[in-house]
Amino acid sequence: MGLPPPAGIMRTMSPLLLCLLLWDLLDLALAYLTVSIEPLPPVVVGDAVTLKCNFKTDGKMREIVWYRVTDGGTIKQKIFTFDAMFSTNFSHMENYRKREDLVYQSTVRLPEVRISDNGPYECHVGIYDRATREKVVLASGNIFLNVMAPPTSISVLAADTPAPFSRYQTQNFTLVCVVSGGKPAPLVYFKRDGEPIEATPLPEPPAGAGSWAPRNLLHRDLDDTKVPKSLAAEGEVGGGRPPATAEPPRGLAAERGPVTETIPETVVSREFPRWVHVAEPIYYFRHTHAPVSDGTVEARATLTWTLNPQIDNEALFSCEVKHPALSMPMQSEVTLVAPKGPKITMTPTRARVGDTVRILVQGFQNEVFPEPLFTWTRVGSRLLDGSTEHDGKELVLERVPAELNGSMYRCTAQNPLGSTDTHTRLIVFENPNIPRGTEDSNGSLTGHCGFRLVLALTLTVILELT
User: Fold this and answer.
1) Which tens digits make up the pLDDT trace of 405-419?
2) 3-state secondary structure of 26
3) Half-sphere exposure of 436 (CA within 13 A, CB side)
4) Mean pLDDT, to the nearest integer, of 328-338?
5) Residues whose CB falls within 8 Å of the CB of residue 461, separated by 6 or more in sequence, listed in order
């Protein structure tokens, strides 16, 4: 027989043995439960998604509940429930006192995920306490499902159009790229003739910079493409114009008032002034995005520069979009083109006195961008309604009189890249239903019928007086 341990050792081990004993009893009384949800990468709209909730326990299953959390966590929508009281899918533990860790997995499958499925999800698991079935131990895990959506549309527009062509005044030009339907916001950039454009970020739109002062440009009288020379330059010397207090960013033309001096068409050369020539344009870029009610984002990108019709005409600009939900960039292209050769139609083709004539611009010989501005004038006279000009693609002449036979009409089509004029002549034929001379220039009845009516009234007055 061995000797008994010393009394000091017994006194030292007694508390340790007591703690181990209590821990063993506590372990038998309390159930063990851990819950975790497998992480998911961002998913794309239309994909099938499976949410997996893994939990490990040595207790007896009570329930599993899946929730979708909305409104910032204030509302939890129950999407799946498993109640062990009404199911025998989970095995019972025969030896209740024997510790047995079991691993379970609960899955929820979304066959075609939508934008509205984006958000947090929670998996709640409950098991019976080991000491009493009246008590339930709960644990939960959560995950955020990030649903992406590729952009559905992209378009390139010109801002502030239609706009006229300016020969002697530089003007800013802005392209706007609108991208809709994406989530998250896409990366938008511009290219010119297939090459990426290096642009200066512009946090505020140029139109908002009201403090810019007009930039001193060469006076047009110093331009040798216009003859004869005006004597207005004498008024420019020592004119006492106050110096500009602030210069706009280099490469952008400042806003100016309208030019009041009239330039006769016959003395203006078709060449551009020398000061229009610029070696390389300076571009300014601005990008904004705004949320849409369906959960997507509308992105707008603007590209602004000082337009040079000589080098910008027929230049190809493209807006391209990169997005994590796209396998390749999405793009839209436009070519800046000045209008050429308007195609004009007239209805009816054989106009008669008293008819309503419509003269319409149906198109051009080329694809024009941006949208042109149309102005109608009558050569050598006013229009039928007495106005000097008419804006729009269509000119309507109501009840044309015979006096308009042979009249010439000019249509001016212009956009910031150029201007072109085209003419058409109106031929008015006699109307057998209206005798010759029974309409004046305004289309009202006159001639013999009017004369007979006045003569009859005059005779009636004379007879009454006598």
Assistant:
1) 999 999 999 999 999
2) helix
3) 3
4) 96
5) none
